Predict the structure.
Amino acid sequence: QVQLQESGPGLVEPSETLSLTCTVSGGSIGTYYWSWIRQSPGKGLEWIGDIYHSGSTNYNPSLKSRVTISIDTSKNQFSLEVRSVTAADTAIYFCARVGGDPRIFGMDVWGQGTTVTVSS
Amino acid sequence: QSVLTQPPSASGTPGQRVTISCSGSSSNIGRTYVFWYQQLPGTAPKPLIFRDIQRPSGVPDRFSGSKSGTSASLAISGLRSEDEAVYYCAAWDGSLTGLLFGGGTKLTVL
């Protein structure tokens, strides 16, 4: 059974870079697409972007200038960086596996989520 | 304000059938597949429907998806107390080239 676990700092200062890692266990990171999604306090879900095991990426146009998603197949991990963060980036960040072609299958396995607060 | 529009709330009594709507446009729901997710309080979203109408293994057939034109719906029959959650629709947008989520519908089981 594939499991995903997010890790990273829970507190980031304004203007700094938020960095999170998602570790995949119980299966290989190869073959699939992998996504990051966030949820601001009391709000809905926002797709941040995804990455294929080959390294090709697709980003939310509203975040694209500040976001980088990368993958390390040797460690079975993929990562998220959000630069120049503000309080608006405070959210629960989820990593997820996409079950196949993202336009067909959607996210079928999710991490439990990690809370990131942007504050000085 | 989300590009995919859902009612903020819905309710029903145990055993009832409820439907949750998701309205989009020709650049998203009208041309791409719709997904539905269930988020129980304090947990990660769980996939309910993909490819408009298909259920992942393990999802009860009480949950069903449908789509017509630029709108989609999630129906829950035989409502149970454990169905109380927030439900999100999602679809890719060809114009915005990204995945969109609806604002979510909080379902209350009375």
In short: The longest strand of chain B covers residues 85-93.
